[in-house]
Amino acid sequence: MLTNADLDPAPLLGKTVAVIGFGNQGRAQALNLRDSGIAVRVGLRPGSARTAEAEAHGLTVLPPAQAVTDADLVLFLAPDEQLPAIYTSIVEAIRPGAAIGFAHGLCVHYRLIEPRSDLDVIMVAPKGPGAVLRRLYEEGRGMVALAAVARDSTGRAWPLALALAHALGSGRAGAGVLRSTFAQETLSDLFNEAAVVWGAVPAILEAGFATLVEAGIDPQLAYLECVSELKLLAELVEARGIAGMREAISNTAELGAARGGPRIVDATVRQRMRDTLAELDGTTFAAELMAEASADYPRLRQSRRDAAGSALEAARRSLAEGRS
C-alpha cells in the first residue's frame, strides 16, 4: 500500500480537472479535489437537477463539452452505462495530450469506450461509496483506493494517477493506495457485487429470515437475529479480521459458525462462484448492463419493488416504528 509519503501531489498542482457527473462519486471527488487546492469544473447537461447542488458548493458548472475544453484531466464519474454516450459526445472537445480518468474500469476493460490514442487513461477507484469518501476526507482520514493506468501516451500517466489519489485523500492515515490494473479492478469489483457482499450476503439474510419465519419464529425476532447482527459482524471483522472475530464471540456462537459455515458455503457454492467469475470475464455482463439501461431498467425496477414489498422489509419497518 502506498501512503502520502509515497505519493507526489505535484503532477496535479496547477492543473484543471473537469468532473463529469455530480452523483455518488462525482460529488465526493469534485469536493475533495477542490479542498485539496485543485481547480475543478463540473460538467453537467443543461437542466440537470444536480446543477443547483454543485453551485451551492461554490463549484463552476458548465455543459460537459465546455467543461472539458482545456482541462488537463477529465474524470468520467457518471453511471457506467451512461459513459460511452457521454464520451462520444465530448471527446472532440478534449484537448490533445490530456488525460481521462475513471473510478471503475468497466467501460475501458470491456471496450465500451475506445479512448483516443493521444490521451492518457487512468483510474483511481475508491473502495467504497462516494458519501463515505467525502466524510472520511472531511474527518482528516481517507479511503483505500486502487490506482491503474490503461494507456500512458505522454509518459506522465502514473504520476498523475497517484497525484489524483493523493488529492482524493486515499494516501492518508488509515487508508492507502494499491497499484492495480483496469482488468483486475473490474473483475474483482463485479465479482464482489455479484457473488459476495452485494449479491450473496443479502440473499443469505433473506433466506435465513424466511427460514426462521417458516419455522414459526416471530418476524421481528427473525430480523434481529438474521439481519441486525450483520453490523456487529462487519465491525468485528474490520477491527480484528475473521480470526479475531471468532475469538471475540462466545464458544456457542463459534461452534455454530464452525458447523454451519462449511455446510452452507459448500463445494457447490464455491463452484457457482467460479462460474460467476468466468461469466464476468467475458462480455455478457457489460452487454446486459447496456441493454438494461436502454430498456429503462425493468429488471432493476422489479428488484427494487420486490425488496420494498418483502416480509423482511415489513419486519424492519415494524421494528423501526416500535423504536420511534
Automatic annotation (TrEMBL):
PROSITE patterns: KARI_C (PS51851), KARI_N (PS51850). Involved in the biosynthesis of branched-chain amino acids (BCAA). Catalyzes an alkyl-migration followed by a ketol-acid reduction of (S)-2-acetolactate (S2AL) to yield (R)-2,3-dihydroxy-isovalerate. In the isomerase reaction, S2AL is rearranged via a Mg-dependent methyl migration to produce 3-hydroxy-3-methyl-2-ketobutyrate (HMKB). In the reductase reaction, this 2-ketoacid undergoes a metal-dependent reduction by NADPH to yield (R)-2,3-dihydroxy-isovalerate. Substrate binds at residue 250. Keywords: Amino-acid biosynthesis, Branched-chain amino acid biosynthesis, Magnesium, Metal-binding, Oxidoreductase. This is Ketol-acid reductoisomerase. Mg(2+) 1 binds at residues 189, 193. InterPro entries: 6-PGluconate_DH-like_C_sf, KARI, KARI_C, KARI_N, KARI_prok, NAD(P)-bd_dom_sf. The lineage of its organism: Bacteria, Pseudomonadati, Pseudomonadota, Alphaproteobacteria, Sphingomonadales. It catalyses: (2R)-2,3-dihydroxy-3-methylbutanoate + NADP(+) = (2S)-2-acetolactate + NADPH + H(+). Belongs to the ketol-acid reductoisomerase family. It comes from Sphingomonas swuensis. Its cofactor is Mg(2+). The gene is ilvC.
